[in-house]
Structure formats: C-alpha cells, structure tokens
Amino acid sequence: MTNYGSNDVMAGVLASPPRQSPVGLTRGRVRVQHGTFQIPAGLLINEYIILFRLPTVARILTLFTQWDDLGGTMTLQLGLYDAHENISDSPTVRDFDLFDVAGAGSAAVASVDQRFATLNHNTTGQMLWELLGLTADPGGDYDVVVTFTAATTPITGADYSWRCTYIVD
C-alpha cells in the first residue's frame, strides 16, 4: 500500500528513512501576545498605534481583534511596519493592511480572526517575511500596527483588544 503525506511535513515523516521536519511546523511552542488599549477621542486620519512586535520568522496562527462602538465612522487597517526604537520616527510600512480588518463604521465588532481575512489558507505556516512576498528573511522584527483611515465622522473613543498566537521555533 502506498502512503501519501498530506504536506511536506507528513511526507518527511513517512519517508524511508524519515526526514526531520521544521520544528516550527510540527513541534513549535505557541506564544501569545495580547492586550487592550483605549482609542482616544478625536483620533486623526492616518494615525497609528503599535500593538506588538514579532520577529520576521514568526508564523502567525491566529490574530483576533475586537473593539467597542467607535462613536464615529472610521476604517481600521491592520498591517506590518519595520520595527523602530524611536516612536517619533516615521516607520517604514511593509504592508499596512496585510491583515485587513475590513472594519469600517461605528458599530462594535466582536472577536474576529484577522489572520485569514485577506490571506488565504495556502499561506498557513508561512513566516512573516514570506507573507510579505520577500525572497529571503531580512532578519529583525516587524511591528503589528493598527492604522485609522478614512474618517467620515470623528470618533469619540473606544476600547480595542487583540490576541495573537504564533510560533517562532
């Protein structure tokens, strides 16, 4: 009987002799970053808030976001910027809507996994640098940033929460 692996990981396990699979795809430790912050009233268009930092080799499993009623109308974009130490510097945008929140309007949004909002299932297991379409790992870190765009009415403030699970092993 012929055995078929469902992917490269299982093909390696079933090979004769077996091949070691990348630890980040089979036995990596899951890490979590999470938090909540208050979106200030009167936030301006194209202002951004850095949520957390991940290494370029992170493999995001889930990226849940949610927020309260904004009290105004604004579009939120969730993406990656080059990590920078001085927050007064203008960061280099890698992809401002890689994890497109698709959240426009004032209504509260329940917890939604943004990991696959714009990235399809074929990107499962890819590292951040691969999700950006790069051909090699540049090393370093990326900031995961929410940017507020296209305000049609001023917001009055709200709570914004996130939870990201990822593997770096």
Secondary structure layout:
Elements (H helix, E strand, L loop, with lengths): L7 H7 L8 H4 L3 E10 L7 E9 L3 E9 L5 E10 L10 E3 L7 E3 L3 E5 L14 H4 L9 E13 L4 E10 L2
Antiparallel strand pairs: 1-9, 2-8, 3-7, 3-9, 4-5, 4-6, 4-8
Quick description:
With 169 residues, this protein is mainly beta. The protein has three helices and nine strands.
The ordered string of helix (H) and strand (E) elements is HHEEEEEEEHEE
**Helical proportion?**
under 10%
Per DSSP, what share of the residues sits in E-state strands of 2 or more residues? 35-45%
Which overall shape is indicated by the principal axes computed on the Cα atoms? elongated
Give the radius of gyration.
Answer: 19 Å
Distance between the termini: 34 Å
Number of strands: 9
Which regions are unreliable across 5 or more consecutive residues at pLDDT < 50? none
Please identify, by name, the CATH architecture: Sandwich
Q: How many structural domains?
A: 1
Helical element count? 3
Classification by helices and strands = mainly beta
Major beta sheet summary: 5 strands, antiparallel
Remind me, CATH topology? Jelly Rolls
Can you give the mean pLDDT? Answer: 79
CATH domain class name: Mainly Beta
Structural summary, described in words:
- With 169 residues, this protein is mostly beta strands.
- It has a single domain, classed as Jelly Rolls (Sandwich).
- The chain is 9% helix and 43% strand.
- The chain is built from three helices and nine strands; from the N terminus they run ααβββββββαββ.
- Strands 2, 4, 5, 6 and 8 form a five-stranded antiparallel β-sheet that branches. The protein has a four-stranded antiparallel β-sheet with strand order 1-9-3-7, with no helix packed on it.
- It is elongated and about 65 Å long.
